[in-house]
Amino acid sequence: MPQRLRRGVRQARPDARPARHPARGGERAAYFLTNRQIHTQIVAMARNPALEATYAGFAAKILRARSLANYDTGRWQESVDEHEGFMKAFRRRDAEEAGALLADHSRRTAVAVIQALRPAAVQGEKAAAGAEPMDAG
Asked: 3-class DSSP state for residue 118?
C-alpha cells in the first residue's frame, strides 16, 4: 500500500464512515450512494489530486456496469460484506489489512462487472449481425 494512503488511513476519522452499510436493510439506492461515497473517500485519503481526477472520470464511466454487477443479489451481499470488512480495518487504522481487503474487493467487483457486461455484449453482437445494411443512397 502506498505510503500516502497508509498515512491517510491512520489519520482518517473513524466516525466519518457509516458503522452499518445501508444495504443490510435491502436499500439498494442507499447502497449505491454509500458505495460511491466510500470509494471516493478512500481515494481522497491518498491525498493525490491526479488519482482523484482519474478516479472521478473512471467512476462515472463504469457506474452503470457496477450497478449491473450488483443487481445479482448474491454479489450484492458479498459486496456489502466486503465493504464492512475494509471499513472495520479502516476504523482500526490497519492500513495493511484495509489495503488487502480493498484490493480483493476491487478484483471481485471487476470479475462481476465483466460477467454482467458479457450478456449485453453478446446481445449487441447478435443485433448487429441481424441488422439490415444501411442504404448509402
From this structure: helix
Question: Contact 72/116 with Cβ under 8 angstroms?
Answer: yes
Amino acid present at 7: R
> pTM score, two decimals?
0.66
Pull the grid cell for residue 8: 491517510
Asked whether the CA dihedral 61, 67, 72, 74 is positive or negative, the reply is positive
Contact 120, 97 (CB under 8 A): no
pLDDT per 10-residue tile (average), the chain, 137 residues: 52 48 64 84 90 89 73 82 91 92 93 80 61 48
For 36-69, the three-class secondary structure string (H helix, E strand, C coil) is HHHHHHHHHHCCCHHHHHHHHHHHHHHHHHHHHH
Other beta carbons within 10 Å of 113: 19
Phi, psi of 6 (to 5 degrees): -60, -45
Task: Write the CA distances from 82 to 52, 75, 105, 124, integer angstroms.
Answer: 22, 10, 6, 32
Task: For residue 103, give the H/E element and its range.
Answer: helix 95-129
